[in-house]
Write a structure and sequence with these properties.
0% of the residues lie in helices and 62% in strands. The chain has 173 residues and is an all-beta fold. It has no helices and 26 strands. The chain starts with a strand and ends with a strand. The model has no long low-confidence stretch (mean pLDDT 98). The strands form three sheets. Strands 1, 3, 6, 10, 14, 15, 19, 20, 24 and 25 form a ten-stranded parallel sheet that branches. Strands 2, 5, 8, 9, 12, 13, 17, 18, 22 and 23 form a ten-stranded parallel sheet that branches. Strands 4-7-11-16-21-26 form a six-stranded parallel sheet, with no helix packed on it.
Length: 173
């Protein structure tokens, strides 16, 4: 349990800058923060590989089951659980400015605002060979895989129920 509801960069690793997290698993996590909140990493500027997180993650902006804000690489990793936030909320990554490859999310994702996705809430960079199967609920730009997308998405899919008010899609909002 990590309960820092007024703090940013919250996770088992709050801020990773150039390091590698490999073969790390978190089970039954209960993580609460403000912005940049993840079950494993709050902000990633390194590499997260072959890692996973299960449990519940709650925050405001940039909230993800594994990583809150990704600026580098997430590969061969997963997240399962209940993810709750406002904006940029994703089952695996809240906001992605890096690469997500061969990864998946299977939990439910709930956002009260914009950019909510089963895998990634807001994606600017690359997503490949990844998927999401959980239910997704949000307001605007809500997608089964990605809520708001401006980057390339290849060889990926989503199968969960998606609910929103505007710009809602089974794959991308």
């Amino acid at each position: 349990t990590i309960n820092r509801s007024t703090e940013n960069d919250v996770g088992l690793f709050g801020y990773v800058d150039g390091g590698t997290i490999e073969n790390v698993g978190i089970e039954n996590a209960n993580v609460t923060g403000d912005d940049n909140v993840g079950g494993l990493v709050g902000v990633n500027r390194g590499t997260v590989t072959e890692s996973f997180a299960t449990g519940s993650v709650t925050g405001d902006d940039r909230v993800g089951g594994l990583v809150g804000f990704n600026l580098d690489t997430v590969t061969t990793s997963s997240a399962t659980g209940t993810i709750n936030g406002s904006e940029d909320v994703g089952g695996l990554v809240g906001q992605n400015f890096g690469t997500v490859t061969e990864s998946y999310a299977t939990g439910s994702v709930n956002g009260t605002g914009n950019d909510v996705g089963g895998l990634i809430g807001y994606n600017v960079d690359t997503v490949t060979e990844s998927y999401a199967t959980g239910s997704v609920n949000g307001d605007d730009r809500v997608g089964g895989l990605v809520g708001n997308n401006t980057g390339p998405v290849t060889n990926s899919y989503a199968t969960g129920y998606v609910n929103g008010n505007q710009d809602v899609g089974g794959l991308v909002g």
